[in-house]
Amino acid sequence: MSYSESVHADVVAKVEVAIIGAGYAGLSAALSLVDAGIETIVLEGSDRVGGRTLSEVRPTGVVVDHGGQWVGPTQTRLLALANRFGVETFPTYWAGDHLEIWADSRVNRYRGAGPDEGDGLHEYEEHITVLDALASTIDLQNPPASPGADLLDDESVASYLRREVPNEGARRRFALAVEGVWACEPGHVSMLHFLFYIAAAGSFDELMETDGCAQDSRFVGGAQAPAIAAAAYLGDRVRLGHRADRVVVHDDGVLIETTGGVVRADRLIVTLPPQAAGALRFDPPLPPAKARFVDRSVMGDVAKVHVTYPEPFWRAEGLSGQATIYDERETGVVFDNSPNDASSGVLVAFVYGRRVDPWATLDADARRASILATLTELFGARAQEPIDYVEKIWSIDPWIRGAYAANPTPGAWTAYGEKGWRRPTGRIHWAGSETSSVWNGYIDGAIASGQRAAQEILDRRA
After folding, report:
1. Domain with CATH 3.50.50.60 in the chain
2. Fewest CB atoms within 10 Å of the CB: 213, 307, 340, 429?
3. HEC sequence for 116-148
């Protein structure tokens, strides 16, 4: 049956390009195409835009970011999008002493990017230089083509650290770094992907640090604000509540079957996280390399907990609100997430990787009690009496199915990555933060991926 013969009365739109997913990748692709005069529609299954960003105004009036929230100075695409729609930023608060709880429950205070002393600290800092040098060899456009890619992809970060970093304290620091940035355990990510991710950000410190790095600034109104503004600009081209279930590709076009009807397009951009994309039905089926790469790209596990107080009381005590925790409790990192005017105090605690499931299976009161116990140990008795508490467990989100990003399992890059990573499959183009060569896994990477996919279509029309 030809494409035209399969179009029925339930076709709700006929456009040149359809986009599945109204996160930053889908919205940026749509903006690029609409700006070029291309008739475009964005199909989003949920009732909101923004994907892995989610900003909520709490009953206290405070805006909290349940998902991605920060922007750094080298994330120029995100900054440009915010500037286009008049969304302002403000610096992350990090003045004062930071805290770390070590494996033996010692609490250390320090200032600046890191402590001067601590278990394994010097070995950790020395090996960051080694990792940056290794990351500089990675081919950002085709990671499997990097020197030694087969060996790097066969080895997990955990096995590498056991061999190359003999100091246990240094290995513990790297393990928390992997949990915090990749939202998984060191044994679940290959060295090739680890180094690629570092290279895509520019350096290891770019990923980890605050001032001038990935956690430098936040958005007035929350990180979802630029996405909401972009969707408003696109208007009725963005269709919420249109969950894509099936994609049928013909010689002369694509049909996307959604809960809101069938959309007909010449080309399609899929921007969903890999595991959500894998739930779509494709007719004909995706090429084996693409299907396998999607299957073996596993979303991280993370939960964010925001705890609000009448004021950021820790600041008066000389504390920044930032803490890193190296023992086995539920949370690994804490930040001051207060509004820019300090009209209230907000601490955000992250639960990562293997810690998520045992914590998430507790009842709500027990989860809350465990978080407040840690905050009380860090910041004193006032931390026990918040005026608001809210949590977001991303692994049970039906649309995203985890966060922050998907990590290919060891061996997946070299087995399937060259053909399965982001190469168009006929009339289908692929975007999403996981497909970006810059700031992979971040909002900026999502925007870059959407712009790349749009350019692929524009180049075909030239």
Report:
1. 4-51+224-286+425-461
2. 340
3. CCCCCHHHHHHHHHHHHHHHCCCCCCCHHHCCC
Rounded to two decimals, the pTM is 0.96
CA-to-CA distance for 141 and 440, rounded, in angstroms? 12
Q: Are 99 and 319 in contact (CB under 8 A)?
A: yes
- Is the distance from CB of 22 to CB of 242 less than 8 angstroms? no
Name, in order, each residue with C-beta under 8 angstroms of 8's C-beta and a sequence gap of 6 or more: 262
CA distance to 41, 223, 254, per residue, from 263 (Å): 9, 30, 8
What residues are paired with 13 via a beta bridge?
Answer: 263
Q: Does the domain formed by 4-51+224-286+425-461 have CATH 3.30.70.890?
A: no
Cα separation, 193 vs 143, whole angstroms: 8
CB 153 within 8 A of CB 421: no
Contacts of 279 (CB under 8 A, 6+ apart): none
Closest CA to 425 of 453, 455, 459: 453
- Model confidence at 10, in pLDDT bands (50, 70, 90)? confident
pLDDT score, position 114: 77
Q: What is the mean pLDDT of residues 117-128?
A: 93
Strands 253-258, 107-110: pairing kind? unpaired
Q: What is the pLDDT of residue 152?
A: 98
What are the tens digits of pLDDT across the range 278-318? Answer: 999 999 999 999 999 999 999 999 999 999 999 999 999 99
The Cα–Cα gap between 129 and 383 comes to 38
- Domain 117-208 top-level CATH class: mainly alpha
Name 290's Cβ contacts closer than 8 Å, sequence gap at least 6.
Answer: 416, 419, 420, 423, 425
**Is the domain defined by 55-73+86-95+214-219+301-396 classed in CATH 3.90.660.10?**
yes
Determine whether the annotation assigns residue 88 to a binding site: no
Does the annotation place 350 within a ligand binding site? yes
Question: With bands split at pLDDT 50, 70 and 90, how would you rate the model's confidence at 28?
Answer: very high
Sorting pLDDT into bands at 50, 70 and 90, what band is 55?
A: very high
* Cβ neighbour number for residue 427 with a 10 Å cutoff: 19
| Overall residue count recorded for the chain in this entry | 462
β-sheet with 217-219: strand ranges across: 70-71, 217-219, 89-91
